[in-house]
Design a protein that fits this description.
Lambda Exonuclease, Chain A, five-stranded mixed beta sheet, three-stranded mixed beta sheet, binds iron/sulfur cluster, globular
Length: 225
Amino acid sequence: MKNNLQKISRSQIELFIECPRCFWLQAKHNIKRPEGIKGGYIGSKYDPLLKAYFDKHRKENKTPEELLKHNLELFPNLNQLKSWRGSGIQFEHPEHKVIYYGKIDDILVREKKFLVPIDFKTTISKEFLIREEYKRQLEIYGYLLKKNNIEVLNIGVLYVIKIDINENFEKIEERTIYFLENLDYDKYDEILENLIKTYRSSNEPEYNPNCEFCQRDFQIRNLSY
Ligand code: SF4
């Protein structure tokens, strides 16, 4: 893998899908989207704990009960997993001359050989809403694995921790496994074609008229003094 190649992350691919203009501004011109478009995120506190929990089982050659009952096991190769967590699952696109990558939380296995992408989510909401973005996240991991000639099932898993407190102010933690089916990996070939055209273009893409941030920018630009 050549280190001097441009790298485009999974979250930048997601940004392109949400708004090509925001992607273009961020990836090409390093102008970041205003904070506050996304909601708060407590996952950064929980993700390392969950990784450690899974790795402990991995080192002991055990499978957490909650996975076993769904016919899932942990991906056994911890060194490979550490690389996918650290540098990401990488795919050097032969025509784009770009490395696409996605850093994963963990990977599961079914029937000893098929990989299943998984992502940890943490919520304080009563209802956990499966957003389209979560599905795309798993799809991009699966796409990158497939581009590395690895067999991936077209299902993905969200491992969700719901946190609440009871009347005694004690913390309640509930773990739920959600399956996302019919993941579509193939569509990302075309998405990345469009992404790279946008990235290499010097034309500023259209903004999303439903997004309040750009609306505000354009209103400011149109002020007449
Ligand atoms: S409309 Fe503007 S701020 Fe909103 S997502 Fe697109 S480029 Fe970003």
